[in-house]
Design a protein that fits this description.
about 130 residues; mainly beta; seven-stranded mixed beta sheet; four-stranded antiparallel beta sheet; 11 strands; about 0% helix; globular
Length: about 130
């Protein structure tokens, strides 16, 4: 069982930047693969970024080049650095964890590959 806590959300103007954090409060035995997902009202939850290695991640096409995901050296904190924010980035953002059964992380952006998530943090981008 993994307990996650997101923070850093808020309201920013279009074109602005915002950094989100995810603290792994509790961590079960073994490693985990981590990702960031978001969900806007009336829309399906979508993958935004997923770690392959500590400072290497895979991104959705909609955020590629604007968002950067990384993990702390202690592996107890995640950061999502968001630049050039667009109105369509407005959503509740969640960090999610999957058990690293295979011993590596593929950078999956599929929601069904993850089993744990926090309560989320709201990001609102004004026009």
């Amino acid at each position: 069982q993994v307990q996650l806590l997101e923070s850093g959300g808020g309201t920013v103007q279009a074109g602005g930047s915002l950094n989100l954090s995810c603290t792994i409060v509790k961590q079960s035995a073994g490693g985990h693969c981590m990702g960031w997902f978001r969900q806007a009202p009336g829309k399906e939850r979508e993958g935004v970024a997923a770690l392959i290695r500590e400072k290497t991640a895979k991104y959705s096409e909609s955020v590629e080049g604007r968002f950067t995901m990384s993990q702390s050296g202690s592996k107890r904190a995640l950061t999502l650095r968001m630049n050039d924010l667009k109105h369509e980035d407005t959503a509740m953002y969640f960090c999610e964890a999957a058990e690293n059964i295979r011993g590596y992380c593929s950078g999956s952006l599929k929601e069904t590959d993850y089993s744990e998530w926090g309560q989320g943090t709201q990001v609102t981008v004004s026009s």
